């Protein structure tokens, strides 16, 4: 199964970006609970008192049902914090936008699927559920957020999981929108399209790749590095972007094994 998460011990991914995320204040917590009309789980608040949301070192939680992610788990690689109109305080807007049940507090997700605190029957100590808006699934992941944390682990994810057997024609606008998407399949579709002729998309690569390197999802950052390597091999990276990627890879413990690949090209 991989590495198990035990409470909040070392859960946050340590990056240059995460080091700049301050802990949540008690004032913000009180205001959030008042706005949401619920009591947030202490295990969740304990995390935010260390860092107010961000990427975590794990990428999966065990699941009792097969789903869009896998047969036995769902993807969980970041946890939202508390921000004015953002993070969990965007739950009401997102629930309406995606036509989800009310009385949920969304803690991670990408639009198509979410992990949420389920307050439909309680006002405190809620279970944690998974919702797939496209597949119409809704099932419990854990009876509490504390137990949910215990179920986090690192699952091996192969790039091939996101490859397409059927080539799909995309307009330049669709390619650009795909690079901004938080859906892995949409992102990979655009990156695959660019890879066929990266020189043609050089301006888009220069604009979008640096943003992907800063994505809160560590898997997206790895996608950016892997495809950058292929783009470089076809002469589609500027020296400035190549140096930026090298600097990024050298400072990321999870990705620094790509250093030699870049330098050898």
Describe this structure in words.
37% of the residues lie in helices and 15% in strands. With 265 residues, the protein is α+β, with helices and mostly antiparallel strands. The protein has two domains: 136 residues, SMI1/KNR4-like, CATH 3.40.1580.10; 104 residues. A four-stranded antiparallel beta sheet has the order 7-8-9-10. A three-stranded antiparallel beta sheet has the order 3-2-11. Strands 1-4 form a two-stranded antiparallel ribbon. The protein is globular.
Quick tags:
single chain, three-stranded antiparallel β-sheet, 2 domains, alpha+beta, 265 residues, SMI1/KNR4-like
Q: What is the fold-level CATH name, i.e. the topology of the largest domain?
A: SMI1/KNR4-like
Characterize the largest beta sheet: strand count, sense, and whether it forms a barrel. 4 strands, antiparallel
Can you identify the CATH superfamily of the largest domain? SMI1/KNR4-like
The radius of gyration is 19 Å
Pfam family, one: SMI1_KNR4
Protein name: SMI1/KNR4 family protein
Organism: Planococcus glaciei
């Amino acid at each position: 199964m991989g590495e198990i998460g035990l409470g909040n011990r070392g859960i946050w991914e340590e990056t240059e970006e995460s080091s700049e995320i301050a802990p949540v204040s008690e004032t913000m917590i009180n205001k959030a609970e008042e706005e949401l009309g619920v009591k947030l789980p202490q295990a969740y608040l304990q995390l935010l008192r260390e860092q107010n949301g961000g990427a975590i070192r794990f990428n999966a939680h065990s699941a009792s049902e097969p789903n869009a992610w896998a047969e036995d788990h769902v993807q969980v690689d970041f946890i939202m914090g508390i921000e004015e109109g953002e993070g969990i305080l965007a739950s009401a807007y997102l629930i309406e936008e995606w036509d989800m049940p009310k009385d949920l507090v969304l803690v991670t997700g990408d639009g198509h699927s979410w992990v949420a605190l389920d307050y439909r029957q309680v006002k405190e100590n809620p279970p944690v559920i998974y919702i797939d808006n496209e597949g119409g699934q809704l099932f419990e992941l854990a009876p509490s957020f504390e137990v949910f944390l215990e179920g986090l682990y690192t699952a091996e994810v192969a790039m091939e999981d996101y490859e397409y057997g059927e080539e799909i024609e995309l307009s330049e606008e669709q390619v650009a929108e795909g690079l901004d998407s938080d859906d892995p399949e949409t992102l990979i579709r655009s990156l695959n399209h660019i890879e066929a002729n990266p020189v043609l998309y050089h301006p888009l690569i220069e604009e979008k790749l640096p943003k992907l390197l800063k994505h809160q999802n560590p898997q997206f950052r790895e996608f950016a590095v892997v495809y950058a390597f292929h783009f470089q091999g076809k002469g589609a990276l500027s020296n400035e972007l190549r140096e930026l990627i090298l600097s990024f890879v050298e400072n990321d413990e999870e990705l620094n094994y790509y250093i030699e690949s870049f330098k050898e090209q």
